[in-house]
């Protein structure tokens, strides 16, 4: 079969023997082009994620192979760079974040970090509502398009959107072209402004539901993570009463996780330790 013939090509690269080539084949890396697309660090992450005993020497070997040179001839500066990058991707993380580099960046830099900027709250309300029925990675990939389509997540500007804007957004291939979700985002912008006015900021309003500081859970497995909580039920009910849409308890709980009202990093995750005392 052609795919098998190409798979053998990995063994022809400098530094890669049958064992390492076999590991790479097993995780879907069959050709030099496949390996080059990943790069040494992502290949290392992929192998570690599938339980293979990949080492730093294999990182050097792959990087050298892609450069057409013996790994022992890599410059010391390059080895230091690879060592630091390998240590970064090897940090213990929530398993869901390992699906892609985009997920990993979001997990490491945003998820669970306490948010106190109203514009960021509004951004996540739009994005979480758009996600309903879809995967979060789909929304993350469309995030830049959403920022452009929804006026940089400026609630005041979005609140002024009318019928022409709805039609424009329905033609925007960069976002989820669902009329109900688009109209809900506009409705929510207007409700958001009313909350800001009443509480001198949406942030003041929303953090009241967790007593002003993050709820820190200590889950040890993804199966332990809840989809809702008493706090998300209360916030969802209140948001609906204020005219918000696409704010069911599950969506609201996801919002609370995203903006750091709840720390749901697994206890083994390096971000759990970094955020457990966050305010």
Report on this model:
This protein is mainly alpha-helical and 279 residues long. The chain folds into two domains: 2-90, DNA polymerase, domain 1, CATH 1.10.150.20; 101-275, Orthogonal Bundle (Endonuclease III, domain 1), CATH 1.10.340.30. 58% of the residues lie in helices and 1% in strands. It has 16 helices and two strands. It has helices at residues 2-7, 18-26, 32-49, 56-67, 76-89, 101-109, 118-131, 136-141, 143-149, 155-158, 163-170, 179-199, 202-206, 230-241, 249-258, 270-275, and strands spanning 215-216, 262-263. A two-stranded parallel ribbon has the order 1-2. The longest helix has 21 residues, at 179-199. The radius of gyration is 23 Å and the shape is elongated.
> What is the H-and-E element order?
HHHHHHHHHHHHHEHHEH
The CATH superfamily of the largest domain is: Hypothetical protein, domain 2
CATH architecture heading of the largest domain: Orthogonal Bundle
Any idea of the CATH topology of the largest domain?
Endonuclease III, domain 1
Number of domains: 2
Counting helices, strands and paired strands, the structural category is mainly alpha
Order of strands, main sheet, comes to 1-2
Largest sheet: 2 strands, parallel
Sequence stretches where pLDDT stays below 50 over 5 or more residues: 1-8
How many individual β-strands?
A: 2
The value of Rg in angstroms is 23 Å
- The helical percent reads 55-70%
General form: elongated
Mean pLDDT: 92
Number of helices: 16
How widely separated are the two ends? Answer: 57 Å
Oligomer: single chain
CATH class of the largest domain: Mainly Alpha
Estimate the strand proportion. under 5%
